[in-house]
Every structure is written in structure tokens, then in C-alpha cells.
Design a protein that fits this description.
By secondary structure, this protein is an alpha/beta fold. The chain is built from 11 helices and 7 strands.
């Protein structure tokens, strides 16, 4: 039997890996505009604006304010932006994170986020203390699925790609990590919730 790889760091995505969003999250965004407005077009514009901020090249609140003004929203941008604070950390997955770190494992967050949401996750949700290192696209200036994202992580950790295990819910991110030499697995909190412990066991992580 082939020996399991020597993993020296675990990289976890944020959304749908260690946390989820409330079921009414999209509805909260839709309620920012008139009920008779084209909600689908509004959502497209919101997420296009957000995507400009993921690598830190634009400010999320400024871009969101532009969209709200374009649609004649009466909601102040501060109130609107707080919708992005609606995050549900998963207690079971975070329990694994604590156990692994207590056992001396290096556990890092590897996520695409704009600065506004990233600061909330780091400070208010406590991820800054919960993980050994946080790799956020807005700080790195590059986002998944770019191979440069994973290359930069390897350089910062001073580890070989073959010593890293990356877990993400998006297939293209997993495939990009693999193309860089990382071990990578797809996991989604809803779609295959029970697989997380199986993945850890596959790579010889011991959790109870």
C-alpha cells in the first residue's frame, strides 16, 4: 500500500467549507431595491462590483454604493454592506481546526474575499486567532483559481507544494491547486458534509 503523503500544512477555503450563509442571504440583497425592480439584473451588477474588489484593487463599499445609486436604493451603503457580515461559522468543522492545531498541525485559511468581509471574518469571527495563517485574495493581490495564488502560498510558507493539502468547495480551484503540485480535495458543507473527516483520515490527520 502506498504511504500517505507528508502533509505539513492544511489549507481550508472559507465559504461552504468552514462557514455558510443564511438561507435568506440573497433575499436580503434583493430587498435593497424596489420590489418591482429587476432583481436578477441587480444581483448580477452587485456581484460584478464585488468581483472587482476580491484582489484588493477596489473598495467594496465604494463599488456597492455605485450600484445602489444606479438602482435608486434608499438604503445607506453601511447598512447594505452589513449583509456581507451574515456568516454562519460551522461549529463541527471549526472543532476539527482547533483539534488539529492543538495537535501541532499547521492549519491555514485560503479564501477569496474583499477587504470589508475579510476584516469582519478576521476580527469579529476570530479567524485571525483561530488559524495559523490567513491567505486572503484581497491581501495577496491575486485570487483563486489562479495558479499564482497557490505558488505565492507555497513561497510564504516556505513549503513544497507536495506538502500542502488544500480543501475547497469549487472544482476549478481544486484542479488549479493540483496543477501546482498540491494535494487537493473538494468538500462542500451541504453536498457532502460527512466527507470532511474522511479527507482528514485519508491524509493521516488524527481527529476524534
Amino acid at each position: 500500500m502506498k504511504d500517505p503523503p507528508e502533509i505539513k500544512a492544511l489549507l481550508l477555503d472559507a465559504d461552504w467549507v468552514i462557514q455558510s450563509i443564511p438561507p435568506d442571504w440573497l433575499s436580503c440583497i434583493e430587498r435593497l431595491i424596489d420590489p418591482d425592480a429587476d432583481k436578477q439584473s441587480f444581483l448580477v451588477e452587485v456581484f460584478e462590483a464585488e468581483s472587482q474588489c476580491i484582489t484588493g484593487q477596489a473598495d467594496f463599499e465604494i463599488e456597492l454604493s455605485k450600484v445602489l445609486n444606479h438602482w435608486g436604493s434608499k438604503v445607506h451603503v453601511d447598512d447594505a454592506a452589513r449583509i456581507w457580515h451574515k456568516i454562519l461559522p460551522d461549529p463541527d468543522i471549526l472543532r476539527y481546526v482547533r483539534q488539529l492545531r492543538s495537535a501541532g498541525e499547521l492549519v491555514c485559511l485560503a479564501t477569496n474575499q474583499h477587504h470589508y468581509r475579510y476584516r469582519f471574518m478576521t476580527n469579529e469571527l476570530g479567524y485571525g486567532q483561530m488559524f495559523d495563517t490567513l491567505f486572503a485574495s484581497c491581501e495577496m493581490g491575486i485570487a483563486k483559481p489562479s495558479e499564482s495564488y497557490f505558488i505565492q502560498i507555497c513561497q510564504q510558507l516556505d513549503l513544497s507544494a507536495s506538502n500542502l493539502l488544500f480543501i475547497d468547495d469549487i472544482t476549478r480551484n481544486v484542479e488549479s491547486a493540483k496543477s501546482c503540485g498540491l494535494f487537493a480535495e473538494r468538500f462542500h458543507l451541504v453536498e457532502n458534509r460527512g466527507a470532511f473527516e474522511e479527507i482528514l483520515a485519508k491524509y493521516n490527520f488524527n481527529v476524534e
